[in-house]
Amino acid sequence: MRSVVRVVAGLLGIGSLVVGVWALVAPGSFSAAVNFPPSEHFVHDVGAFQLGIGATLLLALIWSDGLAVALGGYLVAAVAHTVSHAIDGEIGGSVVQTGLVLLTAVLALAALLLRGRPSWSRRR
């Protein structure tokens, strides 16, 4: 039963990564497929958060430290969200918002590094 759960988590993680990349790379296609209003910046944000969800699921398969998994997934989403804001500067968000999102990414990275490498190397 445990291996079934791991396979499902892996498939969901990969699926979320694929959806996230799709939303980031081809927001028009993504919007049309899911019937979202055509807001490029909004779809880029959706993609960033899908990347974070996917990363969290996949990290949970290799790290036994729940807090490290959460911070790692948050970090992936925050970095993608920061890039989305930087690229979409003319169509969504502000310089202040971009700076705040970047700050959250830096804080997540700092917390993850402070958490320590030994907790990352323990496999389930």
What is the strand and helix layout of this fold?
Elements: H1 2-25, H2 27-34, H3 40-62, H4 66-87, H5 95-115, H6 118-121
Helix pairs in contact: 1-2, 1-3, 2-3, 3-4, 4-5
Q: Which descriptors would you attach to this protein?
A:
single chain, 124 residues, mainly alpha, disordered C terminus
Describe the fold and architecture.
- This protein is mainly alpha-helical.
- The chain is 82% helix and 0% strand.
- It is built from six helices and no strands.
- α1 (2-25) packs antiparallel against α3 (40-62), α2 packs across α3 (40-62) and α4 (66-87) runs antiparallel to α5.
- It is flat.
- It starts with a helix and ends with a helix.
- Residues 120-124 have low confidence and may be disordered.
